């Protein structure tokens, strides 16, 4: 790794990738970078409370607090932002639906605390797996997650998110194209700071254009208060425990807790994606047990206080890939901004008024970057697609993940008595890939915990003679 000093930010080379050192950028620029990460996560993070009825300000508060807790538990090494998880939407809908079967709106405010309790219990599954990894070692777990599994999962994560980006762009293609164009132009031809904050420039530029052309209604901003508390007792899981229905609490746990099996797989895929982007093996150091512990405790904390479950955010991984600024300090600054703005309903309203197409245009780029990282993971680990087993595993992961996501139901499930348990396309595809990789003969990868590659996890490739090469 080489370093060279310039008048502009210090750059470190990993292969042909230039990485900006945040310390050398200076405080003002790092603050802007933090804002950029906050804007990147904002659209998707507030979408979950909008779809479930949870509070936006509470969501922002615990996205920030959860991120800081995650960084503390992972020794401040992993540049991950924890935002709202979409994986639990089905669980919230099962316990606290916002609409009845006829499509009429329902008041689910009294049921949401029960759903939140179920999500908090799901976070305990993360803690259990973290303990098992700590006791038995990362290698015994990671042998089930070679690049032929994690690569297609990462690709599928980006592609399954693509529909929401296109739908948002469709609201106003002019605004969306302006956002996309600004991001591309700034990233490719920009100089200095402009080159590493393309997302925030794309957001502000397209937002301003929408405002001056009369495409934004600021009524909600005028009516919102400047300061307000982001936590409401009657919306917390503590309220459900003290005032609620025990049978509904049990139902919530049974319904929602199994979803953790799917989100854990997604977590491993996300950590692999971040590792691939940054060029460091975070599964080895600080360790998968620490990242799972951080994600699990953040989810438990958020859910108990009435916020959505937390998860490592692909949007921010996309920002990392685009800007080449990997310092975790920038992510922590974004978390502090999220906490600060959670106490301002007016700020939440300003962001809430952001054109849907602006979010769509920026997301279109970021989701594509996630899939590109998955492709890079497969290429750099030299997955052998001449082998039928590898083709079959990759094919089924991609087709099941994407096909189920875009199906009429959007998920698959089964009934246990009167309860219905459903799994997302990513969960089904990932579980299928893991099982096939475990049972099909001809494995050509072994996890090597001692020699990390830039792809995030090291897999020694075995030649025809069975020896590593």
Task: Please describe the structure with a list of short key phrases separated by commas or semicolons.
469 residues; three-stranded antiparallel beta sheet; 9 strands; disordered N terminus; 21 helices; two-stranded antiparallel ribbon
Describe this structure in words.
The protein has helices at residues 22-25, 27-52, 56-73, 89-95, 112-136, 138-142, 147-170, 173-189, 193-196, 198-212, 219-223, 237-243, 246-256, 259-278, 283-304, 314-323, 328-342, 345-352, 356-380, 388-405, 425-439; strands spanning 2-4, 11-14, 17-20, 82-84, 310-312, 412-416, 419-423, 445-447, 459-461. It is built from 21 helices and 9 strands. The chain has a 3-stranded antiparallel beta sheet. A two-stranded antiparallel sheet has the order 4-5. Strands 6-7 form a two-stranded antiparallel ribbon. Residues 1-18 and 449-469 have low confidence and may be disordered. It is mainly alpha-helical and 469 residues long.
Q: Compute the number of strand runs.
A: 9
Q: What is the string of helix and strand elements? A: EEEHHHEHHHHHHHHHHHHEHHHHHEEHEE
Strand order of the largest sheet: 1-2-3
Distance between the termini: 24 Å
pLDDT averaged over residues: 78
Give the overall form. globular
User: Radius of gyration, rounded?
Assistant: 22 Å
Sheet/helix structural class? mainly alpha
Q: Poorly predicted ranges (pLDDT <50, ≥5 residues)?
A: 1-18, 449-469
- Classify the beta-strand content into a percent band: 5-15%
State the helicity in percent bands.
Answer: 55-70%
Number of helices: 21
Largest pleated sheet: 3 strands, antiparallel
